[in-house]
Write a structure and sequence with these properties.
Layout lengths: L2 H11 L6 H10 L15 H15 L3 H19 L3 H17 L5 H14 L4 H11 L3 H14 L4 H13 L8 H17 L4 H8 L4 H11 L2
Helix pairs in contact: 3-4, 3-5, 4-5, 6-7, 6-8, 7-8, 9-11, 9-12, 10-11
């Protein structure tokens, strides 16, 4: 039986008490060393470039997201080592620009990917724009990505988003019990309004009588 198991069983039997330090002590005896916290490094071009490459490979961000991540490293480095803040920020901006110029980061591709993903999940175009701004995507890039989606759509993107939202939340015709569907109609409508869907569109989708009607509409408006 392991030491920790013996301690627990003794405590339960009333023979002894469980010592939470016992496991830590045994770990130390086995040669484990506590992990030392790494000190922040100076925000040099080389260091920030390495951080940028790692961050891009792991998170595939937009330029704004990368800038935020690097800014955290800059702040930590300045607190630890001191230095001129303006110069450090200039170095950081140079790294961000380098990643954009060499194509490692592409804000438009990032925006296109998220616009399509959010739209498939039933997020309205207005909310999509807000979410992308929160991620640090430039407004002009957001506008271009959304415009591309609108121009490529053969049907109303607002209706497509509402249909996708109803499916994801299992509203309206997805409620198999007609009584429950009627009871929840107003609450479902209010939820769609809070999510940014226009009233007449939300009402149209929620008032579909059967799941078959819903699936027919979904098929009709799919690009």
């Amino acid at each position: 039986m392991a030491d920790d198991d013996r301690d627990v069983s003794q405590s339960v039997a009333g023979v002894g008490r469980y010592d939470p330090e016992a496991g830590r002590a045994s770990g130390a005896r086995r040669g484990r060393k506590p992990r030392e916290k790494k000190k922040p490094k100076k925000p040099t071009d080389r260091y920030l470039t390495n951080v940028a490459k790692w961050y891009i490979e792991r998170y595939n961000p937009c330029s704004g997201g990368l800038r935020r991540a690097l800014m955290k490293r800059v702040n930590k480095g300045l607190r630890e080592h001191g230095g001129d803040r303006d110069e450090a920020i200039e170095v950081m901006e140079g790294v961000v620009k380098k990643m954009v110029d060499n194509g490692t980061i592409n804000d438009l591709s990032f925006a296109r990917r998220w616009v399509a993903s959010y739209h498939r999940r039933g997020v309205t175009l207005r909310d999509i724009a807000q979410r992308l701004r929160a991620k640090g995507v430039p407004r002009t890039v957001i506008d271009e990505a959304i415009k591309e989606l609108e121009e490529a759509a053969e049907h109303d993107p607002a209706l497509q988003a509402a249909v996708a939202y109803v499916r994801r939340r299992r509203f309206g015709p997805w409620r198999m019990d007609p009584r429950k569907r009627e009871e929840r109609r107003e609450k479902d409508l209010a939820a769609m309004a809070r999510a940014g869907h226009r009233y007449h569109i939300a009402k149209r989708v929620l008032e579909l009588e059967t799941l078959e009607d819903y699936l027919t509409l979904e098929e009709e408006i799919r690009d």
